[in-house]
Amino acid sequence: MDKGIMPAAGGIEDMAWNVVGQTYIPKLLSHNTFIWHAAIPAETFVPPHIHTTQDEWIYLLEGNLEIEFLGDVHKAGPGDTVRMPMGEAHGIFNRSGKDAKCVFGVAPARKLFDLFVQLDGVTDPAELVRLSALHEVDFLPPPEDA
Q: What gap in Å lies between CA 94 and CA 29, rounded to an integer?
């Protein structure tokens, strides 16, 4: 990791990715940690999945999200930190009718940065699942009311 300041509007090498209809901007990458800003439009979601090698968290800046841990729903709003431990299945849903902005992180970084590079613009669910499995993220079937 290089020392310095990442401007609010900037990302690593000016990258931005469209992943499942959401915009991810990478902010910090080291062996230990990967952090990205996410704009999560209303009525979008990340299907239930498991990070087999990483802890993940979300710090919500604006809007509201629902996090589902195998049917156990938790609601998060501005200022809340969502903790998603390694090995725990979770899905992230914006059912609020308004856009949300947040900061995500995983530790250790492992292969997630490379996964987002490959997922940029992918719209085929089967390809998303295939690529994710190659990068230590295992997707479960989405809930019927997604």
A: 26
Whether pTM exceeds 0.90: yes
The domain made up of 22-138 has a fold known as: Jelly Rolls (2.60.120)
Domain locations in the chain as residue ranges: 22-138
Provide the terminal-to-terminal Cα distance of the chain, rounded to the nearest Å: 37
CA angle 10, 93, 36 (to 5 degrees): 20
Do β-strands 55-62 and 81-84 pair in parallel, antiparallel, or remain unpaired? antiparallel
Q: Tens digit of pLDDT per residue, the chain (146 long)?
A: 889 999 998 999 999 999 989 999 999 999 999 999 999 999 999 999 999 999 999 999 999 999 999 889 999 999 999 999 999 999 999 999 999 999 999 999 999 999 999 999 999 989 999 999 999 999 997 656 55
